[in-house]
Amino acid sequence: MKFLQLSVLPFLIVILSLNGATLAHPYGDFLHCLSLRISNSSTISKVIYTQNNPSYSSVLNASIHNNRFSTPTTPKPYAIITPRKTSHVQSTIYCSKNHGFQLRIRSGGHDVEGVSYVSQVPFVILDLVNFRDVNVDTKNEVAWVQSGATTGELYYGIASKTQTLGFPAGICHTIGIGGHLSGGGFGVLGRKYGLAIDHVIDAKLVDANGRVLRRKSMGEDLFWAIRGGGGNTFGVVLAWKVKLVPVPPVVTVFTVNKNLEQNATKIFHRWQYIAHKLPKDLFTTVWVMKVNSSQVGKKTVQAGFRGMFLGGVDELLPLIQHEFPELGLAKENCTQMSWVQSILYFGGLPIQTVDILLNRHALPVSSLKAKTDFVREPMSETGIEGFMNMFLEEEADFAITMIEAFGGRMDEIRENELPYPHRAGILFESSYFVQWTNEADAGLCINWIRRLYSYMASYASKSPREAYYNYKDLDLGTNNIIGYTSYEQASVWGLKYFKNNFKRLVQIKTKVDPMNFFRNEQSIPPL
Ligand code: FDA
Fold first, then answer.
1. What CATH number does residue 344 fall under?
2. Which residues form the FAD-binding PCMH-type domain (predicted)?
């Protein structure tokens, strides 16, 4: 099927070939439908951005966090709708459905495969950038957060009211709550409290029929599914009610960098046996990347051992020295700070600038490809050596693997408690990333990460080889772009992300959206 780019607006009929048949694409009818339903003209100009609107490109690009999907040949949406009210969301669903446009929902735009803002068929984007309210209720230790807010805005909202409550979600502060909570949400509080979705206690969703549902009215099946069963699948989640968690006023963070010449391989080998068994208050992670060697002109590979302890340095040091003396942690590697400052620390930002959490554009954007693994058995030393050596290759100049210790609370939650199944017995999760700035390098870099992933096959979980939905990887398999996708076809990727929960997700999808209105390359298909 050929994607036709629309440049002349507004009342144009687009023709597309669909499985051999030809359909008229009433783009003008879609806009007409929307404008009838959003009748206030001053509101329309702030809500609908067509391709001939001077702000179209800036609105589109504002939440693109992977330049791989922002090239001149990347398919563009016919329109971007930035709703300001629930009724605008309902109208967008109604008009897209009735006039044959696929809908892509975008909150923070961090989808690593770009599926929140790219589609191969005519589509519009529902961009929740104006749904950003964060209401923190410290008395009841809860917050309502709208999907378009970032994790940073939520963290900031909590920290501006209290130093003793926090929320267990991702490390990066620019990720959107909408996509993040649709797939899991793991961060530095993960060993203590589990995932972000483990703390969702209510939600507000607009379904394919435009109905506005809360937990009670959607029922426990659908409420289960939206907490990790994938975005753009069951409806548009407008807001989430989350339970906040206690954090101490002072936490301690640390970094110890070891390269290949400093025994990085051996220390990482040892870390695998220890990190998942440490007390829940201690989270550790290893960041592997290429760095300059002390020998001029040479490169080496560094394993950066980083961690956060929910307490002071005086308690942390004897604990690490007893459990993991090989790391050689010293007081000068440690810094005490507040929980919210630790977010900045892990994001590589100055910890004094907490206001930066409100800046959605604070981090540079490059082109990237990601893959993930969950590891259940420690890797051999030679296995680690081979893995590290791959970072010496030229294509890995801007590659990083973030290896996050599991165990703790993650071991206590049943696999079917929520759609996200990777819980007990996981030693660590590895997120592999490769980045490039020159498009000419894309092929080589993507090939490198695919080779790294092949190499890791012997060490990763098996049958299925588990993967984290929040770092989508279309290499694992996709739905048919148009038409029906069978259960068997979708199982190829679905079982990797959801294991035995996949079947229940398909059943719920079949019940709540049988016509598959909410769909993307890896959304749950109905039967
Ligand atoms: P985006 O808006 O692109 O949406 C992602 C998916 O959810 C799309 O399918 C979209 O249609 C759908 N969606 C979005 N809003 C929706 C809504 N309101 N209702 C229904 N569907 C909706 N993860 C993690 O667990 N821990 C971490 O530390 C990090 N760190 C991190 C750093 C960086 C730089 C990146 C690029 C990604 C991460 N992630 C992560 C992964 C992140 O959790 C994942 O990409 C989220 O889906 C991002 O959510 P956004 O809303 O930003 O994405």
1. 3.30.465.10
2. 73-247
* CB distance 65 to ligand 1 below 6 Å: yes
The answer to whether the CB of 457 falls within 8 A of the CB of 467 is: no
44 neighbors 101 (Cβ within 8 angstroms):
no
- Could you tell me if the CB of 253 is within 6 A of ligand 1? no
Indicate whether 361 and 476 sit together in one domain. no
| Protein residue with least CA distance to atom 47, ligand 1 | 179
Q: Mark whether 183 and 307 lie in a shared domain.
A: no
Q: Are residues 227 and 144 in the same domain?
A: yes
- In a domain, residue 118? The reply is yes
Shared domain for 263 and 224, answered yes or no, is no
The total domain count for the chain is: 4
Cβ-based burial of 111 (10 A; exposed 0-12, middle 13-18, buried ≥19): buried
Domain boundaries, position 493: 472-526
Interval between CA 470 and ligand 1 midpoint (Å): 6
Cβ–Cβ under 8 Å, residues 335 and 251: no
pLDDT of residue 25: 55
Question: Do 421 and 304 share a structural domain?
Answer: yes
| CATH number of the domain encompassing residue 90 | 3.30.43.10
Four-CA torsion 20, 516, 59, 443, nearest 10 degrees:
-60
What's the CATH code of the domain at 442? 3.40.462.20
Ligand 1 atom nearest to 370, measured from its CA: 36
Pocket flag, ligand 1, residue 520 (CB < 6 Å):
yes
Are residues 176 and 43 part of one domain?
no
Structure confidence by residue, pLDDT tens digits, 207-261? 999 999 999 999 999 999 999 999 999 999 999 999 999 999 999 999 999 999 9
- Residue 147 confidence (pLDDT): 98
Residue 5 counted as domain residue: no
Distance 280 CA to ligand 1 centre (A): 26
Q: Could you confirm whether 487 is annotated as catalytic?
A: no
Annotated catalytic residue within 27, 193, 469, 471: 471
Burial 2-27 (b: 16+ CB within 10 A, else e): eeeebeeeeeeebebeeeeeeeebbb
Q: Which residue has the tokens 């003008």?
A: 28
Residue 425 CA to residue 225 CA, distance in Å, equals 23
- 215-226 and 501-512 are packed helices; what angle lies between their axes, rounded to 10 degrees? 140
Q: What is the pLDDT of residue 40?
A: 80
Neighbouring residues of 160: CB distance < 8 A, sequence distance ≥ 6? none
**φ, ψ (nearest 5 deg) of residue 136:** -100, 130
Whether 112 lines ligand 1, by a CB cut-off of 6 Å, is yes
Q: Residue 255 Cα, ligand 1 centroid: separation in angstroms?
A: 27
Pair (488, 443) in one structural domain: no
- 493 and 505 housed in the same domain: yes
Of 430, 456, 482, the residue that ends a domain is 456
Residue ending a domain, among 127, 158, 177, is 127
Please give the model's pTM, rounded to 2 decimal places. Answer: 0.95
- 43 confidence band (pLDDT: 50, 70, 90): confident
Does the C-beta of 472 come closer than 6 Å to ligand 1? Answer: no
Does residue 1 lie in a domain region? no
Q: Is residue 16 part of a domain?
A: no
